[in-house]
Design brief:
The structure is a single chain. This protein is mainly alpha-helical and about 350 residues long. The chain has helices spanning about 10-20, 35-50, 60-70, 100-105, 110-120, 130-140, 160-175, 180-190, 210-220, 225, 230-240, 260-270, 280-290, 305-320, 335-350; strands at about 70, 85, 150, 160, 330, 335. The strands form 3 sheets. Strands 1-2 form a two-stranded antiparallel ribbon. A hairpin with a 7-residue loop joins strand 3 and strand 4. Helix 13 (about 280-290) packs antiparallel against helix 14 (about 305-320). The longest helix is centred in the C-terminal third of the chain and has 15 residues, at about 335-350.
Length: about 350
């Protein structure tokens, strides 16, 4: 059920994200291996709502849970390519079942490593227990010859999503040894379509999600200004701003969708074009997708809210400057407060 227009239901949304950390409907069971990402949506959502005090009593337990999912190098370093963070304990090999074949499949996942480190930052952790060297060595082995990244070492799809995750990991750990930056930049450049947007890879259709991943990665690499010609950059700006209908769509001729208020909205912020968007229409669409009973945001009006769209809808409102929502670091997809904590860590690491 949609809420009243122009009425931001902050307390309802806080309750929604609290529930995401405590209990989830049965339909989420298929996402159990991605539990780390759901936890990130909930924690970062509460952070944006300035409500992290709701998890204060459980903060140490959540931090310990995140670290329990870190795969550390063994004594001879033979599993270094598998290091990083799992998505949940479901992926872990139990002590009683540890065989060489099964251990080969117990690997970190690039997206889970990104969301794990981001969640630790949100919770104020100092990242001292992150085995940075192992994470970065494993990351470097996930990069492919064309500059893209796989998500796991056993071999997988490789596309722009994982280039973004790799850039976030290197940026947060303040060490770019985990990726060949020039190869990654080249992959992004080759993935710009004739329309101006960016696809999941070269020759693929431009998409709002992959465009965000590409542009945010370039921003984190400090390569945005040198990666496109003026003509290419203008085409990129035009393609992104053209995605607004009321809210934003992910591709031409597709319906508006809550998540693109962040994916496309954040891209517009990063390429200094957000001021050309229609703020009132975007906010109006987002208000139609919030649920007045359970809190949270759904993909479309009058649909059931879910963790991903609830978080990205909130992110869209943060970009709009909604009262009661903290500002975001658009490229890292975390609050500016969490980003400030990261900057303090970087300063301490240098000293």
């Amino acid at each position: 059920m949609a809420g009243e227009k122009d009425d931001f239901l902050k307390l309802k949304h806080i309750k929604f994200f609290e529930r995401c950390l405590q209990v989830l409907p049965g339909r989420y069971s298929s996402l159990d291996t991605n539990r780390m990402t759901i936890a990130f949506f909930a924690l970062s959502g509460l952070d944006l709502l300035n409500a992290l005090d709701k998890v204060e009593k459980d903060k140490d337990r959540i931090i310990q849970w995140i670290y329990s999912l870190q795969i550390l190098p063994n004594e001879d370093g033979s599993n270094i390519c598998q290091c990083g963070f799992r998505g949940s304990s479901t992926n872990a090999v139990k002590d009683s079942q540890k065989t060489e074949d099964k251990l080969r499949l117990d690997s970190g996942h690039i997206a889970m490593t990104y969301t794990a480190i981001a969640s630790l930052l949100i919770l104020g952790d100092d990242l001292d227990r992150v085995n940075k060297s192992a994470v970065l060595q494993a990351l470097s082995q996930l990069q492919q010859g064309d500059g893209s990244f796989c998500c796991v070492p056993e071999g997988s799809e490789n596309d722009m999503r994982f280039v973004y995750c790799a850039a976030c990991i290197c940026y947060m750990l303040n060490d770019w040894s985990g990726m060949d930056v020039e190869k990654a930049v080249h992959f992004i450049q080759k993935s710009q379509s004739y329309e101006g947007g960016i696809g999941q890879g070269p020759g693929l259709e431009a998409h709002g999600g992959s465009t965000f991943c590409a542009i945010a990665a370039l921003v984190l690499m400090n390569k945005l200004e040198t990666s496109f010609t003026p003509k290419q950059y203008k085409r990129l700006q035009r393609w992104c701003i053209s995605r607004q209908q009321s809210g934003f769509q992910g591709r031409p001729n597709k319906p508006t969708d809550t998540c693109y208020s962040f994916w496309v909205g954040a891209t517009l912020k990063l390429i200094d074009t957000y001021q050309l968007s229609n703020v009132e229409c975007n906010r109006g669409f987002l208000m139609e997708t919030q649920d007045a009973i359970t809190g949270g945001f759904s993909k479309w009006p009058d649909h059931t809210p879910d963790a991903l769209h609830a978080y990205l809808g909130l992110g869209g409102l943060s970009l709009l400057g909604e009262e009661g929502v903290l500002p975001m670091h658009a490229a890292l997809n975390i609050s500016q407060r969490a980003s400030k904590h990261l900057n303090n860590l970087h300063s301490n690491w240098k000293n």
